[in-house]
Amino acid sequence: MAEASAEAHIGAPAEKIWARLTDFTSYAEWNATHTSFPNGGPAELAVSATYDENMKLMGFPAEVTWTVEELEPARLLTTRGKGPMGVNLAMRYALTPDGDGTRVRIEGEFTGAAVSLMAGKLKDSAGAALTESLRRLDGLVT
C-alpha cells in the first residue's frame, strides 16, 4: 500500500472551494494528475455515482473508474477507484472552516500487487501531485 496526503489553508470559504472541487468541467485547471473524463463527470454527484477518469500517475497514463463513497457538501468527498493492473485507489477531500478561510486536506491511498513494487516512488509522486493540486486550487478560488 502507498498513501499520500497534502494539506493547505486556502483563504476562501468552504462553499467556494467545494464548488470548484466538484466542477468536473474544470478539473484540469487544478488537479495535477487529471487528463480527461472520457464520458464526462458524474451525471449527478451522489453516493454510489460512478465515472471514469483518465489520469497520469508517475508519468504513466491510467484509466480509473471511480465510485463516490462519502459525500457531505462543502465538507467531505471520498471516492474509491479501480485502475489498471489491479490497482485500487481512494481519494478523500476534507474541507474544514479555519479562521478566514478553509483547511483543505487531500488523502490518497493506493493498493494492489503492482503498488508494492513501486510504493515509495508512488507515495512521493502522488504527494507532490496533491501538493501541486492544492496550490492550483488556491490560485483559482482566492
UniProtKB/TrEMBL annotation:
Gene3D superfamilies in the cross-refs: 3.30.530.20
What is the name of this protein?
Answer: Polyketide cyclase
Taxonomy-wise, where does this protein's organism fall, top ranks first? Bacteria, Bacillati, Actinomycetota, Actinomycetes, Kitasatosporales
